[in-house]
Specification:
Helix content: 40-55%
Number of strands: 8
Strand order of the largest sheet: 4-3-2-5-6-7
CATH architecture of the largest domain: 3-Layer(aba) Sandwich
Number of helices: 8
Length: about 240
C-alpha cells in the first residue's frame, strides 16, 4: 500500500518528476541554443542578462570574455547538462519568450496535473524547486496543455534564490520562506542526492521513478518510491 503523507505543503521538482527530461533536452535546449547569440548581442544591457553574463565570466574564469565566447561557454555547459545558475537564467529568459509567443508548450506526464488539481483542492500548498530558473518555471506553468495554471503553485524556487539542490541548507531556506514546518513538507524528485538533502533538512520525501528517465536505473535510494503521482497520497485527499 502506498504511504500517506501527513503534510501541508508539497514541493515539486520538474525535470524527470512532473515532466519528461527528453522534452527539456530535445526541445527546450535546442530552442535556447539557437537564440543565445541574439540575446547576448541585443539585450546585454538588461539587468538580468548583464548579471548572468558577469556570472558566466566569473564561473569560466574569463573576465574579458566577449559575447561570442560567452555563447560558446553556454553551449558547452548545455552539452554537459551543467546546472549553472547563469545558464539557467538565460535559458529562462529565452524560454519565457518562446512560451509567450506560443512557440513552446510545457510538458507534463499525464498523471501529474490531475494530482496537482486534487492536492490543491484538498488544501495543500504547492511549490516548485527546480534547477531551471524562476522565470522558466513561471512560463512553464503559464503555458501548459491546459492553459495558464500559475495559480496552482504558491511559490517558485531555483538555485539562485534557494541554493544548490543537493545541499540541505537550500531546503532549510525554502522552509523559512514558505513558513511551513519542515516535517510538514513533502519533496518529490527523481534524484536521490536531492532527496537526501531534503531529508537532512527535516522534510518528508518521495522518489518519483519513471521508466525511461535518466535516474531510473539508479533508483531513489532508501526513500519511498512511486512510479506515478497516483501512488503519492498527501494528507487531505
Amino acid at each position: 500500500m502506498s504511504p500517506v503523507y501527513d503534510v501541508d505543503a508539497v514541493v515539486l521538482d520538474i525535470e524527470g518528476t512532473t515532466s519528461a527530461t527528453g522534452f527539456v533536452v530535445d526541445v527546450l535546449y535546442p530552442y535556447s541554443r539557437k537564440r543565445f547569440g541574439a540575446l547576448l548581442s541585443e539585450r546585454a544591457a538588461e539587468p538580468a542578462v548583464a548579471r548572468a553574463i558577469a556570472q558566466v565570466r566569473e564561473l569560466a574564469g574569463e573576465p574579458d570574455a566577449d559575447a561570442a565566447r560567452i555563447e560558446a561557454v553556454l553551449n558547452g555547459w548545455l552539452d554537459e547538462d551543467r546546472k549553472a545558475t547563469p545558464l539557467k537564467t538565460l535559458q529562462g529568459i529565452v524560454w519565457a519568450e518562446g512560451f509567450a509567443r506560443g512557440e513552446l508548450v510545457s510538458h507534463f506526464y499525464p498523471d501529474v496535473l490531475p494530482a496537482l488539481h486534487a492536492w490543491k483542492a484538498a488544501g495543500l500548498s504547492l511549490y516548485v524547486y527546480s534547477s531551471g530558473s524562476v522565470s522558466a518555471q513561471r512560463a512553464w506553468f503559464a503555458s501548459t496543455p491546459e492553459g495558464d495554471l500559475s495559480s496552482l503553485v504558491s511559490g517558485l524556487y531555483d538555485t539562485e534564490n534557494a541554493g544548490p539542490k543537493q545541499e540541505a541548507a537550500s531546503y532549510r531556506a525554502i522552509t523559512g520562506a514558505i513558513g511551513t514546518a519542515a516535517e510538514r513538507t513533502l519533496f518529490l524528485s527523481d534524484r536521490p542526492g536531492e532527496l537526501d538533502a531534503a531529508r537532512a533538512a527535516g522534510w518528508r520525501t518521495a522518489g518519483v521513478r519513471r521508466a525511461g528517465e535518466p535516474y531510473y536505473e539508479q533508483g531513489v535510494g532508501d526513500h519511498p518510491e512511486a512510479a506515478t503521482f497516483d501512488q503519492i497520497h498527501p494528507r487531505g485527499e
